[in-house]
Design brief:
15 helices, 484 residues, 2 strands
C-alpha cells in the first residue's frame, strides 16, 4: 500500500471574490473558491495505483500459498471486484446530490451523509487504523534493514555462517529517524514525497516480481498445490485454518486505499463529473494493480511452493538468481518508502491531538508557545515543546510495540482486517444508501447489506487468524532478545 496525500491550496477571504463567482466557479476558480482543479483520468489513475501498490504486495506469495492455486487467485479477483464496486459507491458521495456541495475529504463525506455519531465512530476507526499502520511500517522497514545486513553477512561468508541479526537496533534507528522527521512542519505535504513513494514502491514490487519469475524459470516447474500448504508436512490442521484466515487479511491489506479515494477525487477537474472520471480511474487502476498482484503472488508461490516466505524480499531462497545487491536495493527501496509513509500516516494523528490540546488548554505556554530557534541560511525553526514531547512519545510507543510484536504477516493481516471492512465497505455502503434514499428492506438495500455483512465476517475471521498467528509466533519469541 504506497502512500499518497493530495495537497490542497486554500483561498483566503478576499473582497475581490463576489458570491456569484464563488457559487458558480469562474475561469480561474472552482465553485468552492479554490483554484481550478487540473486532475484528469490519467492523473487520478496514477494516484490510485500509487496508493494501492505498496508493502502489502510482499505478503501475497505467502497468502496464495495458504489458499492454493484454486482459491488464492479467485479470492484476489473477488477482493478486486468488491473494492471496485464500493469505490464507485464512495466516489458518488463526493458531491451532495441536491446542493452540489463538495466533500473534499473522506471524513467530510461521512459527516455530511451520515451525521455526527457515525462521524465520531469513523474518527476512532481512522485513528486506530493509522496507529496500527505506523506500527506495521516500523516492522516492515526493520525486517528489510535486517535482510540487508544478513545478505551482506552471507555474501562475505559465502553462505557458510547462519548470520543471526538482532532487529532491535534497527527498530530503534528507524524510531529515532521518525522522531526527527516528525518535528519538520508539514513534512507529509512536501511535493516530492508522493513521487519518491511511487518510485520506491514500483522498484521493490518490480524486483519482487522479477525474482519470482526467475525462481520459476530456474526450477523449470511450477510448485504448489491446488489446496495450498499441505497439512501434516508443514502445518497442522488447526494452523492451516488460522493461516487461511490470516491470508485473507493480508490480501485485504493490499487493497486498502479507500481512505484517500475522495482526496484524490478532490484533485479532478470537471466536466465530465468527478464521479464519472473516478469510476473510470478506479477501473483502470484496479485492473492494473490486480494483474500485478496476481502475478507477484502466483509467481512467488510457483517459485517457492509451500515454503513461500512471509515477506517475498526477505526470504532466503533466491540463491544465485540475482546479485545480492539487487535484493538489497529492493529492501533499501522499502525502507526509504516507509520512512516517508510513516509520516504521511502519523501526521493526522499528530494534528488531532495537538488541536485538541490547544482547545482544552489555550493558555498553556507548554502547549501553544513556539520558540524561535535561528538556523543559519534558513528560516528560524519554530519549536513547540508539546509537539516535541507528544510526537516523541508517539514514535517511542510504536517502536516499542514493534519490538514486542515484530511479526510481519500477523500484523499485516490484522491491519487488513481492521481497516478494510469499515473504510472500504461499511461507510461507502451506508453513505450511498443515505444519499440515494434507498428504502429499508428493499431488494437493493438487502443486497448492499448482505455485501457489507459478508465482508465483515471475512474481516473478523481474518482478525482472529492474524491474532492466532501472532500468538503462535510468540511461543518461540523472546521480546528484545530473539535474533532472526
Amino acid at each position: 500500500m504506497a502512500d499518497n496525500t493530495a495537497s490542497r491550496n486554500h483561498i483566503h477571504s478576499n473582497p475581490a471574490f463576489d458570491a456569484s463567482v464563488m457559487d458558480g466557479g469562474s475561469k480561474f476558480f472552482d465553485d468552492d473558491g479554490r483554484p481550478k482543479r487540473t486532475g484528469n483520468l490519467m492523473t487520478a489513475s496514477a494516484h490510485i495505483i500509487t496508493a494501492v501498490i505498496g508493502s502489502g504486495v510482499l505478503s501475497l506469495a505467502w497468502a496464495i500459498a495458504q489458499l492454493g492455486w484454486v482459491v488464492g487467485p479467485v479470492v484476489m479477483v473477488m477482493f478486486s471486484l468488491v473494492t471496485y464496486y464500493t469505490s464507485c459507491l464512495l466516489v458518488a458521495c463526493y458531491r451532495d446530490p441536491v446542493t452540489g456541495k463538495r466533500n473534499s475529504t473522506y471524513s467530510a463525506a461521512v459527516r455530511n451523509h451520515l451525521g455526527g455519531l457515525k462521524y465520531k465512530v469513523l474518527g476512532i476507526v481512522q485513528r486506530v487504523n493509522l496507529f496500527g499502520i505506523t506500527i506495521g511500517y516500523t516492522i516492515t522497514a526493520c525486517i528489510s534493514m535486517v535482510a540487508i545486513q544478513r545478505n551482506s553477512c552471507l555474501h562475505k561468508s559465502g553462505g557458510e555462517k547462519p548470520c543471526p541479526v538482532n532487529s532491535n537496533p534497527y527498530m530503534i534507528a528507524f524510531g529515532i529517524t521518525e522522531i526527527i522527521l516528525s518535528q519538520i512542519p508539514n513534512f507529509d505535504k512536501l511535493w516530492w514525497l508522493s513521487t519518491v513513494a511511487a518510485v520506491m514502491s514500483f522498484t521493490y514490487s518490480g524486483i519482487g516480481l522479477a525474482l519470482g519469475i526467475a525462481k520459476v524459470a530456474e526450477s523449470g516447474t511450477m510448485k504448489g498445490t491446488l489446496t495450498g500448504v499441505r497439512i501434516g508436512i508443514h502445518v497442522t490442521q488447526t494452523e492451516k485454518i488460522w493461516r487461511i484466515f490470516q491470508a485473507l487479511g493480508d490480501i485485504a491489506f493490499a487493497y486498502s486505499f479507500a481512505i484517500v479515494l475522495i482526496e484524490i477525487e478532490d484533485t479532478v477537474k470537471s466536466p465530465p463529473s468527478e464521479a464519472k472520471t473516478m469510476k473510470k480511474a478506479s477501473k483502470i487502476s484496479l485492473a492494473v494493480t490486480s494483474v500485478f498482484y496476481i502475478l507477484c503472488g502466483c509467481f512467488g508461490y510457483a517459485g517457492f511452493g509451500d515454503l513461500a516466505p512471509g515477506n517475498l524480499l526477505t526470504g532466503k531462497g533466491f540463491g544465485d538468481l540475482a546479485p545480492y545487491w539487487v535484493i538489497d536495493l529492493a529492501n533499501a527501496a522499502i525502507v526509504v518508502h516507509l520512512v516517508g509513509a510513516y509520516q504521511v500516516f502519523s501526521q493526522p494523528l499528530y494534528a488531532f491531538v495537538e488541536k485538541k490540546a490547544a482547545q482544552l488548554f489555550p493558555d498553556s505556554h507548554f502547549i501553544t508557545k513556539e520558540i524561535q530557534i535561528p538556523i543559519p541560511c534558513f528560516k528560524p525553526y519554530k519549536l513547540n515543546l508539546f509537539r516535541l514531547v507528544w510526537r516523541t512519545l508517539y514514535v517511542t510507543a510504536t517502536t516499542v510495540l514493534s519490538m514486542v510484536f515484530p511479526f510481519f504477516n500477523g500484523v499485516v493481516g490484522f491491519l487488513g482486517a481492521l481497516g478494510y471492512w469499515p473504510m472500504t465497505i461499511y461507510f461507502p455502503v451506508e453513505m450511498y444508501i443515505a444519499q440515494k434514499k434507498i428504502p429499508k428492506w428493499s431488494t437493493r438495500w438487502l443486497c448492499l447489506q448482505t455485501l457489507s455483512l459478508s465482508v465483515l465476517i471475512i474481516a473478523l475471521l481474518a482478525a482472529v487468524g492474524s491474532i492466532a498467528g501472532v500468538i503462535e509466533s510468540l511461543k518461540d519469541y523472546k521480546p528484545f532478545k530473539t535474533s532472526s
